[in-house]
Amino acid sequence: MSDITINPKDFQLHEGDTGSADYQIAILTVRILQLTEHMNANKKDVSSRRGLLRLVSRRRKLLDYLKANSEERYQKALKGLGLRR
């Protein structure tokens, strides 16, 4: 796997939180990293590429939502997940 380890539980707002944008972004990021690794090994896998693009788009929308509603949580998510923007 990649050298970055992400624990989605670090992004929960409270115990049992599964719906906050922060947590969803963390979950999507983990899945995106896994699919990216898969795509490096299987370059012709078009269905996985499409799924990867959908996940990236969904994460982008959640990040936009977070930025509009809470700049502080947005910056924490970017820094904690190692995303650049």
UniProtKB/TrEMBL annotation:
Species of the source: Rubritalea spongiae
Alphabetical list of PROSITE patterns matching this protein: RIBOSOMAL_S15 (PS00362)
Organism phylogeny: Bacteria, Pseudomonadati, Verrucomicrobiota, Verrucomicrobiia, Verrucomicrobiales
UniProt keywords, alphabetically: Ribonucleoprotein, Ribosomal protein, RNA-binding, rRNA-binding
UniProt xrefs under HAMAP family: Ribosomal_uS15_B
SUPFAM superfamilies hit by this protein: S15/NS1 RNA-binding domain
A GO CC term attached to the entry: ribosome
PANTHER family in the cross-refs: RIBOSOMAL PROTEIN S15, BACTERIAL AND ORGANELLAR (PTHR23321), SMALL RIBOSOMAL SUBUNIT PROTEIN US15M (PTHR23321:SF26)
Main function: One of the primary rRNA binding proteins, it binds directly to 16S rRNA where it helps nucleate assembly of the platform of the 30S subunit by binding and bridging several RNA helices of the 16S rRNA.
SUBUNIT field: Part of the 30S ribosomal subunit. Forms a bridge to the 50S subunit in the 70S ribosome, contacting the 23S rRNA.
Protein name from the UniProt record: Small ribosomal subunit protein uS15
Family named by the database record: Belongs to the universal ribosomal protein uS15 family.
Top-level taxon of origin: Bacteria
Pfam family, one: Ribosomal_S15
Coiled coil: none
InterPro entries: Ribosomal_uS15, Ribosomal_uS15_bac-type, uS15_NS1_RNA-bd_sf
